[in-house]
């Protein structure tokens, strides 16, 4: 079952710079939710707050009703949160399979001591994870690349590997940061199919940051538009695309007047 995510009056400052101001929104279980806005609007910073990489100055973030503000990323991963990054952070000298398996470590029984002792139940779990990782790679069109080193593969394939790594943790909430950036048109179409399947069939709540409005329109149930760190509007992708405030935020006031 996908997670319920709720942000209330979230504020983040770096020194004197306000990066997020009073951001509120709610994502229902199983929704595919878009987070859009011009460059520098605060989208990635917001993801960093949800995933525990940044600690907001004030506000609340709950996942399934549990307050998680300030919880470290590793703990959040154990509670069903996974994310991808704008620039995939892979182990470049490791194979594709090894990279994906990293996403499964939160599901291994015990902790570092048990892992060092290599108990039989650990080997069993590792075998199961390996089977699941191979199936994920196959399902996402990467079966042929399992034993390739990550640094032999393209940026687009790195994104696919990172997605499989995130999915191996069996998340309830998945944050995708610009999954279409740098992908050719044909691969964006494929990505839309993949994310739709993740949301609908795997029943995972997905929040996606993306500049590609075609992808946002095709995928999302609802979007929030951020501008200068504050929520500008919330609605469907179609409502956002025709909202004069959103057009102005993207184009600047003078150009928006020209369009109108
Ligand atoms: N660690 C940091 N220290 C200082 N300022 C930061 C930090 N992280 C983000 N910012 C600032 O916060 C603002 C929002 O940046 P952020 O990357 O969240 O925007 P974005 O909407 O994701 O932009 P883009 O679409 O270009 O990726 C920017 O002004 C950025 O410089």
How does this model look, in words?
The protein is an alpha/beta fold and 260 residues long. It has 2 domains: 168 residues, 3-Layer(aba) Sandwich (Rossmann fold), CATH 3.40.50; 83 residues, Rossmann fold (3-Layer(aba) Sandwich). The chain has 11 helices and 10 strands. It has a 6-stranded mixed beta sheet, with helices on both faces. Helix 5 packs across helix 6 and helix 10 crosses helix 11. The longest helix is centred in the middle third of the chain and has 20 residues. The chain is globular, with a radius of gyration of 19 Å. The model has no long low-confidence stretch (mean pLDDT 90). Bound molecules: adenosine-5'-triphosphate (ATP).
Separation of the first and last Cα atoms:
43 Å
Hey, roughly how much beta strand do the residues contain? 15-25%
Could you name the CATH class of the largest domain? Alpha Beta
Number of helices: 11
Determine the mean pLDDT. 90
Radius of gyration: 19 Å
| Cofactors, ions, other ligands | adenosine-5'-triphosphate
- Characterize the largest beta sheet: strand count, sense, and whether it forms a barrel: 6 strands, mixed
| Helix percentage range | 40-55%
CATH superfamily of the largest domain: P-loop containing nucleotide triphosphate hydrolases
* Main structural class: alpha/beta
CATH architecture of the largest domain: 3-Layer(aba) Sandwich
Spell the H/E element sequence.
EEEHEEHEHHHHEHEHEEHHH
InterPro entries: AAA+_ATPase (IPR003593), ABC_AA/LPS_Transport (IPR051120), ABC_transporter-like_ATP-bd (IPR003439), BCA_ABC_TP_C (IPR032823), P-loop_NTPase (IPR027417)
Domain ABC transporter: 5-253
GO molecular function: ATP binding; ATP hydrolysis activity
Keywords: ATP-binding, Nucleotide-binding, Transport
